[in-house]
Design a protein that fits this description.
two-stranded antiparallel sheet; about 60% helix; alpha+beta
């Protein structure tokens, strides 16, 4: 697969923006207030406010976010919380299916699967926290740290195996 830098950046930006749009739309459907949406990291290049939401474009086209009222999200029924948290992953899976066989489709599949792993602050981790808090009727630091650390250990093992396997 021959991929230009332009295709890589454009595909990554589109996949991130559409992922966050999934969270944004799910939050609106579940009546969870959204106060901000941004694309990129670093210094703000451009921003505007529309319908009580601050939109921002930042200098480095890496990452994106939706800022929503987390206390309002936590008051929603469990299925609505999971719907909002996993909507971005669902969008990436849908885009992967639609663009199957292309770089954009492969990138979306990687993003969707990567977000399901229970790594800290990924959608899978947030979903496991919501479920564990519902099961235990409170936050359980031991359970939450075990999710975080076990995923980190698995990630380190996979990366070290890829880096240090002799061929």
């Amino acid at each position: 697969m021959n991929i230009s830098l332009f295709n890589l950046v454009l595909s990554f930006a589109a996949a991130l923006a559409l992922h966050e749009a999934g969270h944004f739309l799910a939050a609106l459907i579940c009546r969870v207030p959204v106060s901000g949406a941004g694309f990129g990291w670093g210094p703000k290049l451009f921003g505007f406010r529309a319908k009580e939401v601050d939109y921002q474009i930042r200098a480095l086209p890496i990452g994106a976010y939706i800022k929503m009222d987390m206390s309002a999200l936590q008051r929603r029924p469990l299925l609505q919380q999971l719907f909002v948290l996993l909507a971005g992953v669902a969008v990436n899976f849908a885009l992967a299916a639609i663009a199957w066989g292309t770089f954009f489709g492969t990138l979306n599949l990687i993003l969707a699967v990567g977000n399901l792993f229970p790594l800290y602050q990924q959608d899978g981790w947030k979903s496991l926290m919501v479920i564990s808090r519902r099961v235990f009727q409170r936050a359980s630091p031991i359970v939450e740290w075990s999710f975080t650390l076990s995923a980190a250990v698995i990630g380190l093992i996979l990366v070290s195996r890829l880096l240090f396997i002799s061929t």
